[in-house]
Amino acid sequence: MRAPLATLPFWATALWLPVAVAAPAEPDWAAAGAETARLLSAYLQVDTTAPPGGELAGARHLAEVLAADGILAEVDEFAPGRANLVARLPARRPSGAGAVCLLSHIDVVTAVPARWDHPPLSGHIDADGVVWGRGALDMKGMGAVELEVLLLLARQGVELDRDVVLLAVADEEVDNQGILRAISRWEQIGCTHAVNEGGVGIQDMFFEGQVVFPISVGEKGYVWGQVVAEGEPGHGSTPIPDRAPERLVRAWEALAAHDPKPHWDPALITLLDAVGAQRGGLPGFILQRPALVRLLLRRKLMGNPLTRAVLTDTIHVTGFSGAEMPNVVPAEVRANVDARILPGTTPDQHIAVINELLDDLEGVRFELRSTTPGGSSPVDDPFYAALAAQLEAEGAQIAVGPAISPGFTDSIHLRRIGVHAYGLVPFILTEEELRTMHGDNERVSTTNLERGVRVLYRALIALAGPK
Ligand SMILES: [Zn+2]
Q1: Ligand 1 centre and the CA of 105: distance in Å?
Q2: Which of 193, 206, 308, 432 has the fewest CB atoms within 10 Å distance of its CB?
Q3: Residues 440, 111 contacting (CB under 8 angstroms)
Q4: How far is the CA of 439 from the centre of ligand 1 (A)?
């Protein structure tokens, strides 16, 4: 931190001032927030609901906005109607450092318009400056923030030492084809770092009045497959034990009995430390001591499904198939399994756990569909540090720390090729607002959009701006 002026002798003040004047002036944040709300409103009105996605229309829309500011963008249509957008702001003082990607996805999930107060494709801005529409949070809102930041960096003529790339991709919600396409030509994109969806600021997450910003530094991988149970088929009129459906129920019970030990990832310990440091008092004392956390919070954290998913490798039976008629006992029935693994657990290790749980059961086997290991990016990284510092600067009630996400995003693929990817949407949300993601009445306030632009812009200046 720079020493306050009052503590410096007069001559030092005189030397210091001209440097400060030479630094680029900051944008008008209120105007930037209002512009972001307008950009988001228009973007939400472009229908990119997946399936089928239709991200070409979204990419073209973003390209038009950029063109109005004289920024060239590439629309990369890799399948009919499916496209990524790539726009590059070149470094004005290149240092050789790799580019930073501002990543978002263009597609949004479906919505049921009748359940919404303002239709999901309306982009309605209400009297309080709240922007309504499917994707306001997941994740056209962040896309609009990233777009605005690129526009501001260009307009302010900031002398960055590395390229900043706006990368908006298709198909995050279904098959990740967009990011995989971008990765197939990564030498042209050239990002060593990326910010993407992930953590958001959650009001009252651990303590009332406190906002916790987990920055997602890693994501769990997955093992997807089916448990198959086989047995002799027959007529429903005569119950005979040990047929396929009964075997499947036993398999389900065996998997449900899985009782994994918590894995205390260093990211979680660091996040709880930050929460404790902000909170202070006895809770703060405990949270800053990993041994006490493990001792006193284990039961609570393992008892809550959300935190349990963060602490463990999971096995989750998510559905059944195979039986059509009430009077027919089928020869084969199946259960879908969505198992998730922490970074550090290999898919093979977890498949072995699943097989072991099913080992004693006759006529039952696990069939693997697909798997991807989890991955993480370092916390000790200048981009992570810049994002965290700018979030903390937003208010004394804010605690910031790293986190491993139980779900995955496009970042899982970027980390596999060595990109340091950080999941952060710099909005402060209530739990009610969080539930609108993939739910009804998804919306975001102009205050949050303005905060998002300010945090991301300042973090990029801190990372790559004039020193
Ligand atoms: Zn998303």
Answers
A1: 7
A2: 432
A3: yes
A4: 13
* pLDDT tens profile 201-236: 999 989 999 999 999 999 999 999 999 999 999 999
For residues 255 and 178, membership in a common domain is answered with no
Task: Tell me the two tokens of residue 188.
Answer: 């042209």
Whether the CB-CB separation of 142 and 449 falls below 8 Å is answered with no
268 and 358 inside one domain = yes
pLDDT single digits (tens) 260-280: 999 999 999 999 999 999 999
Q: How many domains does the chain have?
A: 2
Of 103, 5, 107, nearest to 49 (Cα)? Answer: 107
Ligand 1 centre and the CA of 405: distance in Å? 13
Please check whether residue 297 lies inside any domain of the structure: yes
Structural domain boundaries enclosing 457: 25-204+406-464
CATH of the domain at 132: 3.40.630.10
pTM of the entire predicted model: 0.91
d(CA 318, CA 28): 49
CA of 103 to the centre of ligand 1 (A): 11
Distance 339 CA to ligand 1 centre (A): 20
Q: What distance in angstroms lies between residue 75's CA and the mean position of ligand 1's atoms?
A: 20
Q: Name the domain boundary from 353, 372, 391.
A: 372
End-to-end CA gap in the chain: 13
Å from CA of 109 to ligand 1 middle: 9
